[in-house]
From TrEMBL, chain A:
Topology versus the membrane: Multi-pass membrane protein
Record keywords: Cell membrane, Membrane, Transmembrane, Transmembrane helix
Spans traversing the lipid bilayer: 12-36, 71-90, 97-116, 144-162, 185-208, 220-239, 248-269, 275-292
Matching InterPro entries: ABC_transp_permease
Entry coiled-coil feature ranges: none
Name of the featured protein: ABC transporter permease
CDD domains: TM_PBP1_branched-chain-AA_like (cd06574)
Localization in the cell: Cell membrane
Organism for this UniProt entry: Thalassospira povalilytica
Keyword Membrane in annotation: yes
TrEMBL record, chain B:
Single Gene Ontology MF annotation: ATP hydrolysis activity
ABC transporter domain location: 2-249
Record-linked Gene3D superfamilies: P-loop containing nucleotide triphosphate hydrolases
Pfam family, one: ABC_tran
Name this protein carries in UniProt: ABC transporter ATP-binding protein
PANTHER family listed in its UniProt record: ABC TRANSPORTER DOMAIN-CONTAINING PROTEIN (PTHR24220:SF692), IMPORT ATP-BINDING PROTEIN (PTHR24220)
Biological classification of the source: Bacteria, Pseudomonadati, Pseudomonadota, Alphaproteobacteria, Rhodospirillales
Entry keyword set: ATP-binding, Nucleotide-binding
Gene Ontology terms: cellular component: plasma membrane
InterPro entries: AAA+_ATPase (IPR003593), ABC_transporter-like_ATP-bd (IPR003439), ABC_transpr_LolD-like (IPR015854), P-loop_NTPase (IPR027417)
Amino acid sequence: MEFLSSTFTSYVALVPVTLAQSLILAFVVLGIMIPFRTLHFPDLTSEGAYPLGGCVCGVLIAAGMNPALAIIVALLCGFLAGCCTALIHLRFRIHTLLAGILMMTMLYSINLRIMGKSNLSIFGSDSVYNWAPFVTPGFPVSKIIIAGIIGAAVFLALNWFFKTEKGTALRAVGSNPAMAEAQGISVWISTIVGVGLASAFSATSGALMVQSQGFADVNMGLGILINGLAALMIGEAVVGKQSVFRQLLAPFVGAIIYYQLVSLCLAAGMPPPDLKLATGLFVLAMLALPSLKRGRGGAPAREKLRE
Amino acid sequence: MLEIRSARKTFYAGQPDEKVALDNLDLTLQTGEFGVVIGSNGAGKSTMLNAVSGALPLDSGQILINGDDVTNTPVHKRATRIARVFQDPMLGTAASMTVAENMLLAELRSKKRTLARGLNAKRLADYKERLSTLGLGLENRLNTKVELLSGGQRQSLSLIMAVGGSPDLLLLDEHTAALDPRTADLVMQATVRAVDSLKLTTLMVTHNMQHAVDYGHRVIMLDAGRVKLQIGGEEKANITVAKLVDHFAVKTDAMMLGA
């Protein structure tokens, strides 16, 4: 009883901070959802694009740039990184996963070059969270408001875009590339723009996180992909993925639930170093579920992979 | 009008299993003409269709559509003039998208895609009407994902998608081969109706000799990557399956299926 109440108290105290964190990280989950689900292009670039966004934003803010402008530059850098991954796959016929690993490994060096050191503090600098209306800057509420507004805007924009003529064409490339090409859609352009867009969101998340925590670190992306996948799967389990609307909502809902669960585990006394093992086992369980349900014998591959 | 001029394609060139798939193939199809391509396995039918659609680059030779050289035009650019129905019903449609969205993709094949809303009321009404001509009830399933349709329904949808917008050239790649006889017949009837009413320039590959006899203006027989025989006009009208099969050098079981 004692344990439960102390767990509950420390969990509740963490709810606003966790909520702010999850709204920021929802953009990474979005950056994972778009390639994995919409484009059927399993992509690991986010693990490098997220710290890329963070490092770029950190350096720019340290140099005195406007925080909103710094996010936009970080976003563009992420877009370029995603374009490179897509190009590596398309031009050299390298598997998407390997192309992503290559990109993420190379980005590690690039991130170090950008910052010049492994860690950069921008504590006390101006951030977009200081612009939240009606609240005292520096509190989680201001982060929730700002990240929430940007998240809602991105969600509405994507929900509109995926239903336009161009957006429908982009989704067709993920659904059936051969058919899309036969319908006059350039698979190259759609894939490059789509994967670029996804990495742009991952980089945006990194930039928002750096402004939130007050420092940038080259290792900040470590394990972000598995966290994001776990969040995505939870989101899809809760809101489904039958329609464009639900598929887009899943990353946001998933991120909110996932980080609250993590916070609950930590409040209950789970040692933080075990977190990655727990998350990995969770993702494994989610992926293994269909095969376990079917009983013995291998299940057909769950992820449809592009050659 | 489609012109294929001295098309040449060799697979595994310089290797022991080198295979000449197209051997200086020449073929002309007049505007509005319906050509039926037959030939044994490995005769080059699929290679020819892939070369025309752009999926396979030629080693040498030219492909012209309505007089324009498209030999080096990539698939997605050629698609503005060419529509294709594949043998595999899975290939011609986007499974995870709805019937209406697939129709939209096909409608935009030859148009510039904009940032305007894709499925508007006007389009939905139009799709409903076009699908109702099939008589399969697809007009009431516009929001159904294509993966939930049967193979025959998917192939019928592919056909309606292909003939919409009156393409300069329609390619049918054994498009009824994977269907059960009754459905194959339905799809074939719908094909002939559309081709006749829209006067589409059509190239159909088939292994079904009865179809080759019954449909089209001209039978084109391929053998070892060249046109071995063309039967058109009066002669085509009087041809029988037995006579057609006699022209095959190798009488495989596949050929006899139609007899």
